[in-house]
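Lecture notes, unit on binding sites. The following record was shown on slide 14. It pairs a sequence with zinc ion.
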Amino acid sequence: MKDCIFCKIVAGEIPADRIYEDDMILVFLDIAPINKGHALVVPRGHHHSICSVPSDIRARMMERAPEIAIAIMRATGADGFNFMLSNGTCAGQIVPHAHLHIIPRSPADGVVLPARSVPYENADEKHEMLAKIRERLAV
Ligand code: 5GP
Ligand code: ZN
């Protein structure tokens, strides 16, 4: 897509610090890292949502992501990592080209990920939700 920053990176029209690439995906350093080594895994093709990325390409993203995370941990000395994928503006997605964040983590690194718990009103409400999700699962 012509105005997409990540399509331009894939095409080599703007520079990026490339870690890995193959026929389906590209992995490069985030320009504004949450921790040093923070990387992004993107499909070569333009898809706004991860849901429209073809399943073989999604599989490749998830196959490579842990391998790249291990390399990032070894390189940075991090003890762990977060995978983060924001899908949709309401979820915090800014760049409209699907991407998986790999964020290396260390004890007391100061990163605060938003966390909360919204309780179900009661067991019936939870079971209704469970049934609705299962009915709509198209796998
Ligand atoms: P989102 O909020 O959409 O999940 O995250 C987009 C990410 O892309 C941000 O972490 C941001 O720093 C990164 N980013 C935005 N523009 C560029 C760019 O031109 N180059 C690189 N390497 N990363 C970018
Ligand atoms: Zn794109």
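Take-home: The longest strand covers residues 100-105.
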